[in-house]
Design goal:
- The complex is a heterodimer of chains A (about 375) and B (about 675).
- Helices cover about 40% and strands about 15% of the residues of chain A.
- Chain A is an alpha/beta fold and about 375 residues long.
- In chain A, β8 (about 215), α8 and β9 form a beta-alpha-beta unit.
- The longest helix of chain A has 20 residues, at about 1-20.
- Chain A is globular and about 65 Å long.
- Chain B has about 675 residues and is an all-alpha fold.
- Chain B folds into two domains: about 55-270, no CATH class; about 375-670, no CATH class.
- Helices cover about 70% and strands about 0% of the residues of chain B.
- Chain B has a two-stranded antiparallel sheet with strand order 1-2.
- Chain B is globular, with a radius of gyration of 26 Å.
- Classes of the chains: A alpha/beta (about 375), B mainly alpha (about 675).
- Chains A and B meet through α2, β2, α3, α6 and β7 of A and α3, α10, α12, α13 and α17 of B.
Chain lengths: ~375, ~675
């Protein structure tokens, strides 16, 4: 703690001198794998906030990708420190493997922010949701929908990660409390709609939809609903599904018959019984904003726990343009004509980030 | 033994060309990175570099041993994770001064135990290394998750010594560690074991015939390699100070790349450990350069692939390299053409000899006798499939009582069955195509992007996608045939390039949908049957005919048995090889298109999970990874077997860790059935 204080003091003095020189803060972003929607969206939002009028003169942002390899991320963070970073915003591939290198960065006065996933090293700032809660709340909703009784299918995330372990733990604790809840099949979904479909197909090879009363999925409710439609199940008979916050899933939650531009196939309003949670992709942008705050001497807590975005079939609301102002008034689903990819993550609204709206997440453009 | 005379210096240089070139590349890259960086190179940079690359370097040394023996070890990354997890789960948090030698021995011993498992099946049972180590990889990954299901645990600070300084401000500890291993290797290389290792890698049969202890040598090789992966696991534990059950898994490809850059020949018999260490550091310095040059994230995989290719190409350029051979052959062809000496330029005369008398038609042996070899190697997969089906019926039911199970099974097997033709043809020629994952993804992303959900657009979108795939295959083929690069290297680099291209094309998020007709093809229903199933039957028939009844098919087998013999017999090996790689890319593109129809949209990374299975099914289906043997129907059996196994496991609530272990064990059982009789 004392160390941290000294570090903070050293930093404030350093930053004061930096501010005098009127140089923009040199901030690096070390991303993980860019091969999926969530990462691409998070990156867009970070780029957008850095390009916003409030920040573009104060921040010099450089983006690097390390792939799924923690060894590379370690080397990358080292290289960033060596090339004079003021702050490093990182999507950590491992919560633990980066500890030593992050500690080293802090010792050299570099501010380190981890977004979405966590870094357990004390000197790092973390911005993320409570993952246990992200498993628990949807599970509770599902149990309630089923009246405490029924056969469910559970689809988890990437095995061996903390996020998956915590979400699954949170959900399983709830299911264990209800004797009437029986998990009939469990599959590894890798947080991917494509994998969710192959896994559900495998489960349904030996089982019928009639044998399943509900689904708990870390990702894949959109796909599960699409598959039920293909199997000839009427939209009004869709099984309750507790799952991720993809825009496709949100659109399906809108009352059947709602007119939305660009709807097609299963990417359409179905009145699906759903709860949709998300690990919001704005966390990186918020981390960048908070990093600037720290660099400019403001007090920022070590852990910024983001509110868990929860949307149910009752609270879902369509946005027209997706501006921050509009989302502030409560809309949380976007027109398929604007968001053509149903797997795209819709939980992009943060009270603290008026700089970014839909365009930021889609194409990296800040609000005007 | 008499004292050996020192070989002339020219021979030494010639023999270690590849290593010398890779050292030059490394020095050049460090200088370049230093020039880009505004800050001067300090001891800290060197020590960071030394420590950052050590895990890959140590593991690459182990992999080099295996590759020198002519093998391939896919379990390397998994062992690193296992050792890291085992250490983190077992070290006592209260003991800050845990004994470094003791825990190092613990980690190395775990690695050696896994190596002994591999070595037993590969050395004594003579199973193919690639499948055995693939099975081991799954088993080890499962066990790792049983040891530790999420990151955490505790690694004593005393182990951190490995990532620190041996002599402060002068010598980083990782350098010492690697140096010690290299020193041991120099002793080992001169020993009887070392000699046997190179002999086996150069020509296994000859080594066996000369009375070398092949089985024992192979066994020892995998044990030593396992020990080095274990050491890498210990090192990564000290470096990171904690446990992560996934930490090593992503290292597999960098480890291979490091070995290849270091000049060790895939297939065995040539190269060494020093080169692999250099290779590991080359890969690392590239990370620094990308940062210093501020290369956009989308281009980073392309840049890395370019470095990989450049380094390997530089190491292979010499008078007797494939490239110069091809150039010479091209020149002599031109000369022959100018002199009008080519066979095709001469008059066509029927030179066939007349058969004397009327020969009685030969009595054909029976079907079973004629196809004994094919059945011998194709049946095990189908027999295992039957066992899995019975097990599924007993545990979950619904297998033999209705069509639904079969429909799902066949639809899900489609992707692997199509890949089996492409990857199978490549493997039959003795190659391997690692560019499959991102070819699949690029095809899917292009299709949804171009068609934007409209059925009519399929008419041009599908041909365009297939044409792009053919182009990619053409480039693969040319790179392998003309530049003479190892298929693994070139297609690995191509995979990175395709990843970059896909990201650039999609801007990070793929657009659009699969057209309705494509979705109907994969998920619709005609008389209770998914429409793709009859098409798959047509495809399988076509593939069998292509590989067994056409000149093209026979040339593939001829090349796999001996490229040289095929060439001398008049087979245009270059053209055939290029065609095979084009076929493989196009099969991957078809899979991408079908997957898009199945899922309704394309997603980045959707091909990632098909690389290892595409190789596994071909080998489980009875093909020899070195080429020349295997039947497409066996590979289809492998595809259905793999899918049936996954279906069985998905229907249970077994934890993932156990599933991975089972999956590995079943693959192992399937290949034990393929064991060559030794006599």
């Amino acid at each position: 703690m004392l160390k941290k204080l000294i570090g903070a003091l050293a930093m404030t003095t350093m930053m004061a001198s930096a501010a005098q020189a009127d140089e923009p803060h040199k901030i690096f972003l070390s991303m993980s794998y860019i091969g999926n929607d969530w990462q691409a969206e998070a990156a867009n939002m970070i780029k957008a906030i850095a390009a916003h009028d409030n920040f573009k003169d104060r921040v010099d942002l450089q983006v690097q990708v390390s792939g799924p390899n923690a060894q590379r991320q370690i080397q990358q963070i080292n290289a960033m420190v060596q090339s004079g970073a003021d702050a490093i915003v990182v999507f950590p591939i491992s919560p633990t493997a980066l500890n030593n290198v992050v500690k080293n960065a802090c010792d050299k006065g570099v501010v380190v922010f981890a977004y979405d996933a966590e870094i357990t090293e004390e000197c790092a700032y973390n911005v993320h949701i409570d993952q246990v809660e992200a498993g628990r709340i949807p599970a509770e909703w599902l149990v309630e929908q089923l009246g405490g009784e029924g056969r469910i299918v559970a689809v988890t995330g990437v095995p061996g990660t903390s996020v998956d372990a915590e979400r699954t733990q949170g959900a399983m604790e709830v299911f264990d409390q209800h004797e009437g809840i029986e998990i009939v099949a469990e599959a590894v979904g890798m947080w991917s709609q494509a994998v969710a479909r192959t896994e559900l197909s495998k489960i349904l090879a030996t089982r019928d939809w009639d044998d399943i009363d509900g689904l708990w999925m870390q990702a894949g409710c959109f796909t599960a609903n699409a598959m039920q439609l293909e199997a000839g199940i009427a939209p009004s008979d869709l099984k309750p599904c507790a799952g991720e916050g993809s825009n496709g899933g949100r659109i399906q939650m809108l009352a059947e018959g709602t007119e939305v531009e660009g709807a097609s196939g299963a990417y359409a309003p179905l009145g699906a019984p759903r709860i949709s949670y998300a690990s919001p992709p704005y966390s990186g942008a918020l981390a960048l904003k908070l990093a600037v705050d720290v660099l400019e001497g403001k007090d920022v807590p070590e852990l910024t726990k983001l509110p868990l975005p929860i949307v149910t079939s009752e609270t879902v609301q369509l946005c027209e343009t997706g501006s921050w102002e509009e989302m502030k008034n409560g809309c949380n689903a976007f027109l398929p004509s604007l968001v053509s990819n149903p797997g795209w993550f819709a939980s992009i609204f943060s009270q603290d980030l008026p700089e970014i709206g839909l365009n930021a997440a889609l194409v990296g453009q800040p609000e005007g | 033994m008499t004292t050996r005379a020192m070989p002339p210096i020219g021979t030494v240089v010639q023999r270690s060309r590849a290593v010398l070139v890779s050292i030059a590349v490394l020095v050049g890259l460090i200088a370049f990175s230093n020039w880009l960086n505004p800050f001067p190179l300090t001891y800290f940079d060197i020590s960071f570099l030394a420590s950052g690359g050590a895990t890959t370097a140590i593991a690459a040394m182990g992999q080099s041993l295996v590759i020198l023996s002519g093998g391939f070890d896919l379990s390397a990354g998994a062992v690193i994770s296992l050792v890291n997890a085992a250490l983190a789960a077992n070290m006592d948090p209260a003991n800050m001064q845990a004994s470094v030698p003791l825990w190092t021995a613990f980690g190395v011993a775990i690695g050696m135990a896994v190596g002994a498992f591999n070595g037993f099946f590969i050395g004594f049972m003579r199973l193919q290394p690639i499948v055995v180590t693939l099975a081991t990889m799954f088993i080890v990954q499962g066990i790792t998750l049983l040891v530790m299901d999420k990151p955490g645990g505790f690694i004593s600070a005393s182990l951190g010594i490995y990532a620190g300084d041996a002599i402060p401000n002068f010598l980083p500890f990782p350098i010492v560690l690697i140096g010690v291993v290299l020193l041991l290797w120099m002793l080992l290389k001169r020993s009887r074991y070392g000699l046997a290792l190179y002999a086996i890698g150069s020509d296994g049969d000859a080594a066996e015939a000369s009375g070398l202890p092949v089985s024992r040598t192979l066994f020892v090789t995998y044990v030593l390699a396992g020990g080095l992966y274990g050491l890498a696991g210990v090192y990564v534990s000290g470096q990171t100070g904690s446990g992560d059950p996934l930490v090593g898994n992503a290292l597999l490809l960098p480890i291979f790349a490091a070995v290849v850059i270091g000049g060790t020949r895939l297939g065995g018999g040539q190269g060494g450990l020093l080169g692999s260490v250099i290779g590991a550091y080359v890969l690392l310095v590239v990370v620094n350069i990308l940062l210093a040059a501020n290369v956009s994230a989308y281009y980073s995989t392309i840049a890395e692939s370019a470095v990989l290719l450049a380094a390997v190409l530089a190491g292979s350029l010499s008078r007797d390299s494939k490239l110069s051979e091809q150039l010479r052959a091209g020149l002599s062809w031109l000369r022959a053409r100018n002199g009008r000496l080519l066979v095709s330029q001469r008059d066509r005369v029927d030179n066939r000899m007349a058969f004397a008398g009327s020969a009685t038609p030969p009595v054909l042996p029976g079907f079973l006798t004629r196809n004994a070899a094919v059945l011998r190697y194709s049946l095990p997969a189908w027999i295992c499939l039957l066992a899995v089906l019975v097990a599924t019926q007993l545990l979950l039911g619904n297998v033999f009582t209705g069509w639904a199970y079969w429909d799902s099974l066949i639809v899900l097997s489609t992707f692997l069955a199509v890949l089996a033709l492409g990857q199978g043809a490549v493997i039959l020629t003795g190659g391997l195509d690692l560019s499959v994952p991102w070819m699949i993804t690029l095809a899917g992303v292009m299709l949804t992007g171009m068609s934007a959900g409209s059925d009519g657009s399929l008419l041009y979108a599908v041909p365009v996608v297939l044409a792009v795939a053919a182009l990619v295959g053409l480039i693969n083929g040319i790179g392998i045939v003309v530049l003479g690069l190892s298929p693994i290297v070139f297609t690995l680099a191509m995979n990175g390039i395709l990843q970059g291209v896909t990201l650039l094309y999609s801007g990070g998020t793929p657009d659009g949908f699969a057209p309705a007709s494509l979705r109907w093809l994969m998920t619709g229903e005609v008389l209770g049957v998914t429409p793709i199933i009859p098409l798959l039957l047509v495809f399988v028939t076509f593939a069998v005919l292509l590989l067994t009844r056409t000149p093209f098919g026979r040339r593939i087998y001829a090349i796999g048995n001996s490229e040289e013999a095929a060439h001398l017999s008049g087979v245009r090996t270059s053209a055939t090889l290029i065609a095979v790689y084009m076929l493989c890319s196009m099969c991957a593109a078809v899979v991408g298109i079908l997957l898009t129809g199945f899922g309704g949209q394309a997603s980045l990374g959707m091909g990632d999970e098909y690389l290892l299975p595409s190789i596994a099914i071909v080998v489980v289906g009875g093909a020899l990874i070195t080429g020349g043997r295997g039947h497409y129907l066996g590979m289809v059996g492998g595809a259905v077997l793999l899918t049936a196994m996954q279906t069985l496991l998905a229907g249970t609530t077994l934890p993932y860790a156990f599933r991975a272990v089972f999956f590995g064990l079943i693959i192992l059982v399937a290949v034990v059935g393929l064991r060559e009789k030794r006599g």
